[in-house]
């Protein structure tokens, strides 16, 4: 009987496929971690926006959202955003949050880079409506995936890629 020696065994094929899968997973890991971090920061921002909508209704006030493009001196590697109300011509901060300074801030549905010191367009009224807007975040390289949080006129908050 002749022995056929022209191919690979099933075990050899499975071993090669497993090794290639491990190598590919390791090579894509930094991008997955980066996407996860951005998504996590956007989810936190979206939760804060929903909080502001609810507080505007409960407190019977207009909550204004302001997000900055430059870090404040006390917070290393973090850029602030906050919600405030106006009382007697004064801004009273009701809640403050941060996003990473490694990210670029975008505005509007077409995702234009915010070049001013801050972006302040989104407002939640006491009637559960809002002057809606879009906030986008992405890493600093040109082909980076952009993620956005959109607030519509009814005050609904949506996170998307």
From TrEMBL:
Keywords: Cell inner membrane, Cell membrane, Membrane, Methylation, Transmembrane, Transmembrane helix. The chain crosses the membrane at residues 6-26. One of its GO terms (cellular component) is plasma membrane. Residues 43-155 form the General secretion pathway GspH domain. Its main location: membrane. It is found in: Cell inner membrane. Gene3D superfamilies: minor pseudopilin epsh domain. SUPFAM superfamilies: Pili subunits (SSF54523). InterPro entries: N_methyl_site (IPR012902), Pilin-like (IPR045584), T2SS_GspH (IPR022346). It comes from the Bacteria. It is a single-pass membrane protein. It holds the Pfam family N_methyl. GO terms for biological process: protein secretion by the type II secretion system. This is Prepilin-type N-terminal cleavage/methylation domain-containing protein.
């Amino acid at each position: 009987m002749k022995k056929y020696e022209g191919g690979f065994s099933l075990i050899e094929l499975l071993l090669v496929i497993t090794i290639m899968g491990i190598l590919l997973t390791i090579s894509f890991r930094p991008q997955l971690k980066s996407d996860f971090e951005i998504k996590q920061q956007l989810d936190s921002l979206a939760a804060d926006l929903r909080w502001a909508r609810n507080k505007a209704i409960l407190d019977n006030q207009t909550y204004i959202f302001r997000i900055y493009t430059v870090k404040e001196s006390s917070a290393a590697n973090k850029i602030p955003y906050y919600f405030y109300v106006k009382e007697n011509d004064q801004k009273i901060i009701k809640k403050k949050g941060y996003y990473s300074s490694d990210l670029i801030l975008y505005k509007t549905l077409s995702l234009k880079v915010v070049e001013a010191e801050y972006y302040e367009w989104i407002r939640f009224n006491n009637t559960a409506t809002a002057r809606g807007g879009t906030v986008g975040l992405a890493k600093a390289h040109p082909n980076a995936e952009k993620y956005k949080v959109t607030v519509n006129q009814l005050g609904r908050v949506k996170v998307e890629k």
